[in-house]
Specification:
The model has no long low-confidence stretch (mean pLDDT 95). The chain contains 16 helices and 14 strands. Strand 8, helix 10 and strand 9 form a beta-alpha-beta unit. Helix content is 40%, strand content 15%. Helix 2 runs parallel beside helix 3, helix 9 packs parallel to helix 10 and helix 10 runs parallel beside helix 11. The strands form 4 sheets. It has a 6-stranded parallel sheet with strand order 5-8-9-10-11-12. The chain has a 4-stranded mixed sheet with strand order 1-2-3-4, with helices on both faces. A two-stranded antiparallel sheet has the order 6-7. The chain has 2 domains: 133 residues, Cobalamin-binding domain (Rossmann fold, 3-Layer(aba) Sandwich); 235 residues, Alpha-Beta Horseshoe (pyruvate-formate lyase- activating enzyme), CATH 3.80.30.20. By secondary structure, it is an alpha/beta fold.
Length: 403
Amino acid sequence: MVPLPLGLACVAAATERAGHGVRMVALGSDADCEKEIRPAIEQLSPDVIGVSVRNIDDQNMQSPHFLLASLRQVVAVCRAASSARIVVGGAGYSIFPGSVLAYLGADIGIRGEGEAAFPALLSWLEQGRQSPPPPATYFPDGSHAATTFAPALDDFLLPEPRLWLDFPDSTATRIPVQTRRGCPLDCIYCSTSAIEGRPIRRRSSESVVRWLTALRKNGFRYFHFVDNTFNLPPSYAKELCRKLISADLGLDWWAIVYPKWVDTELAELMAKAGCTEVSLGFESGSETMLPQLNKRFTCTEVRKISDTLAGVGVKRYGFLLLGGPRETMETVEESLEFADSLRLDELKITVGLRIYPQTPLALTAVADGLLKSDDNLLFPRFYISPLLRDWLPDRIARRESRQ
């Protein structure tokens, strides 16, 4: 299922609040962009068209699918149908602001949060570019303004269903919820800090529950918290769960849990608040490899938290990310054995780590001779320990064929 465009909907809500007319067009992976986009442009006659870039590729080393090619077609259709300026943004764009802007052939880019930047950009354009460009903007000539992040997310509206959830059977779909942005954990491969910054910034638990209550009244029951780490900080996670329990909304939701700082109290509160499953991102089951990935937990902590969540009836979906720096056949086997011992409800194994710019993994890849310092990482490049390049994909393929 194509993820619902929560980020784009938040920008649309902020743009409406600033006094502009807005229409959203959500394109599925197999959409006919000509049929979807041209009628919307003809109906609205926009002055500016915003295009959200969520993902660059599918992070699959064996057969990578580069997703920007279809978005370039979207931009081309917009160009053919309208003289409006085309602005790109989104999580994927924010990792590669200059490269994506050039590849797509758009007019302006916004790196980072769009709720403040996009309305500010519209005002700047309306005023004839009389002042310096607003923060977070990028231009084809390479000039750009620094990205800033709002200290408090309550300054940004959460979108109403009419903006982005008006489609058949929408109430049976899991709706994304984001209560926090930013991550200070610095896993070696992660691009989150480029997208959201390092400090954890949050919405008030009251505003989140109000929004969920309104959605519940509109028939929505299924949600997923897309926060990078639902359990950080633990005090906020517990406060949010308590308020959800008090609201008694009858929700069914899942979340992403960092396997540290989860005690029995938090697990019980999550279950009572409606959490039915979690993504448990431990990535490795080798005590040797966890520090190499800059993980802050041990295998013992992962096991304890996994057992605690299972004990309160929450399903656990685990993830292994194999082939990183200093990975060996022995550490791979340790990870597989560890993951099997957890008796997870589901396990996803990824071979090879997608390399993103300005990450410790990119520096390691250069030092190991796998990349040049000026390589364009927009097109998928992967790190896999050289000794495992041939053996590891085959090892995982043989394992999965037996499952």
